[in-house]
Design a protein that fits this description.
homodimer; Rossmann fold; Alpha-Beta Plaits; 11-stranded mixed sheet
Chain lengths: ~450, ~450
């Protein structure tokens, strides 16, 4: 048996991920030592309540409520408390104490990343955060190292398991959002307060982290355009299916190059239509995937569990091993890139394709009017499908019920556009709504992934 | 503009990948410098014939036939010659000269990996080989670093683009192997001599590299069981489709744990049945994917281009940036794991599921006889499907042609087994063939991926 140097590891937090990390550190100590080249001694676990129930059976003597004292003298501090405070204070304390930090805290990094990384730079410490971007999926090292000689053009990520689970069930069962959300909550796939997931806040934090890495720049959270999935209903899913699409909550990170060569980026989270033949369309249940397009490498996809205590613990422990190797090697940095400061464009400047669904009067000349408004608005039509709507207003119900309730009857227009500027598109949709021939704008969805 | 230190880079080989690497190094110099923290100066390109035609327009003065002199004084040597010699000699020369080596040479690493890595260890040099395992797909760093705190249980990889292209077209078109191979050769997807691809030699080399990394052990190439796809025909593909499977050439790397806790591994390459709902089933064309199952992380998949000059160049340049960062940081190692020496079990000890397709006499008692032989051989039946075969002997042709040509007529039996030991299975198949009731063993295929 090799005689390894011992490194002192402090764990902050013992929730779903933290308790699994502690359990694996204790169970697989010998194997981890072979991987790391150092014995990893779990010095203690800082928690708010020493007596709280944990997911794993851990020695009671490891627990303490005094994070500050635990941190001092530690070589590696694992922060799994989540949230901004006291996580931020403890992470900065750990860095100041000379420790490397491993964290899964996407909220902290998306809002105070610069502060944390600068503090680490100043003392030569490292911050590892594989688990903060896409749970168990190894995406940090591929973006930071493997693709460092390439240029990432675009990322499309399914980075929130709860919303993918909900959208996938809606797609499979034709169910409505509220029903599936209630079931997801009952099964533990969604929180009692689902806002962070269903409104896209969680995905936006991960998008900021991924874009920062991919484009070697700093992306503040407020530069991320964010829309959630609460407005997605069964009719939209059915209509998407009919057109060969599936609706996914996507985090899109894009590099834009102006004609004069000036570069900017767009980072946005919204429900979008994805072609059913696209690799992202086959990401089911609570799984995540990050689809990366790079100039030389072409299309890459990274797939796996985006959440889960033990799955995320895998990513955390990979970081702990990396931190330990760094300590043994003498504290040399992992070689982060020089960071640019690429401007993030507002959502209005984004160029993508759209699917516009309208209810219009079913009478002659309406399509010409609609097409004219689109053309004036610099929105070019790629496809149009018109169907007559029965009075029940349920497009999915094809049984011939009573005649039309309105005088002229209604039709549904599904318009697929070529690439258009978001601002042109939204102004055009406003003009359509006010045109007199459009009864209702049913939905406007972006189409991503060519 | 930052004032960077200059690192001298020597390139050996200017084929499809090498010429793209040179082109990108020259074109993206400033951006690569920001990534690497060093200016990467392409000192020269060693080739056999200075005047040969290249895929990229490169300055003639960079070319030399004197690799040995070019290597001396270089900080990073990129070996893209392929093959064992003179690649091996030049790589060892580069290491001895104090350079780090970046290589895409799977043949070299699979056969002389230990020699190369030991030589590097002795002088504190590093060998980077992201492009040797799965082309442009970042798989080395995820296995070596991201999953270093986890335990990989199994890898199933589609790691050869040519064979995936052939099998995918056979699946889409119902075409036969020889026809699709000829088309693939005409289109440049397959070499004039396709042996290395279609006989599984290329996949076996990559399997040895992946298994070595995943299990932190040394896997010699001759420990890899290898079968190619030349025996796969249209009828097998059709029969697989009927049963809900697709045939893929898989590189399977498996960790086996005996009851007493002793560990061994199995590494094998063969055409196998994969459930159509499995993520690997949707890997089309010449794309590659590596599906990884780890104890904590669960199922992960890495997808992308497995070959191609510019795609592979992306992986090579990622390694060059890593090597440069290491030089700038002062030459500290990347922290490879301690290596175990896990024994590789022979193919006969492998346990998996099988699909056995037999032509049998269509008369009473045959199924009982077949079932009896399987049971004696410790092969447990999961599913059986029996269909009567017309005299045309074309199972896919359901038109009622002339009656049976043999006296009793023939039936086709497709037997899906539960997990069985390969040796039990092959002995059982031999007994079936000799039983008198089996006219022909049509195919025996492994079923992978649960």
């Amino acid at each position: 048996m090799t005689d390894y140097r011992t490194l002192r590891v402090a764990l902050l937090g013992a929730g779903a991920v933290g308790s699994q990390v502690a359990d694996l550190l204790l169970k697989h100590g010998a194997e981890l030592a072979d991987r790391a080249g150092a014995t990893l001694e779990l010095a203690g676990i800082a928690v708010r309540d020493v007596d709280a129930k944990r997911d794993a059976d851990l020695p009671r003597e490891l627990f303490t409520t005094d994070a500050e004292t635990l941190i001092v003298g530690s070589d590696i501090v694992i922060e799994l408390m989540g949230g901004i405070e006291p996580a931020r204070t403890q992470v900065l304390h750990a860095i100041a104490s000379g420790a490397d930090v491993v964290t899964a805290n996407k909220a902290l990094l998306a809002t105070h990343g610069s502060e944390v990384f600068e503090a680490a730079d100043q003392v030569g410490a490292e911050v590892y955060y594989e688990a903060a971007a896409a749970g168990a999926i190894p995406i940090i090292r591929p973006l930071r190292d493997s693709l460092a000689g390439d240029r990432v053009v675009r990322i499309m990520g399914i980075v929130n398991g709860t919303t993918n689970y909900i959208l996938d069930r809606m797609d499979n069962e034709g169910a409505d959002f509220a029903d599936v959300l209630a079931q997801a909550q009952a099964l533990g796939y969604a929180e009692a307060d689902p806002t962070a997931d269903v409104e896209g806040y969680d995905a936006a934090q991960k998008a900021a982290i991924l874009a920062s890495l991919a484009f070697h720049t700093t992306v503040p959270l407020d530069a991320v355009h964010r829309e959630g999935i609460t407005s997605v209903d069964a009719a939209m899913i059915e209509s998407a299916r009919h057109a060969g699409y599936v609706i996914k909550l996507l985090a899109v990170c894009e590099r834009l190059t102006a004609e004069d060569g000036a570069e900017s980026i767009s980072v946005r989270v919204y429900p979008a239509l994805v072609d059913r033949a696209h690799p992202l369309a086959s990401v089911h249940g609570a799984n995540n995937a990050v689809f990366v397009q790079a100039e030389a490498a072409g299309d890459l996809m990274f797939y796996g569990a985006g959440a889960g205590g033990v799955q995320t613990a895998s990513a955390v422990l990979g970081d702990v091993v990396s931190a330990a190797r760094r300590h043994i090697a003498g504290g040399v940095g992992v070689g982060e890139s020089t960071r640019a400061n690429l401007p993030a464009v507002p959502i209005g400047h984004v160029i993508t394709r759209y699917q516009i669904t309208l209810e219009v009067d079913d009478k002659p000349g309406v399509l010409a009017t609609v097409a004219g408004i689109l053309s004036e608005g610099r929105v070019s039509i790629a496809t149009v499908e018109q169907t007559v709507i029965e009075a029940s207003a349920d497009a999915a119900d094809s049984s011939a019920s009573a005649g039309s309730a309105t005088g002229a009857g209604s039709a549904r227009l599904v318009i697929g556009t070529h690439k258009a500027r978001e601002q042109d598109l939204s102004e055009t949709v406003e003009r359509l709504a006010a045109s007199g021939v459009v009864e209702r704008v049913v939905s406007v969805l972006r189409v991503e992934g060519n």
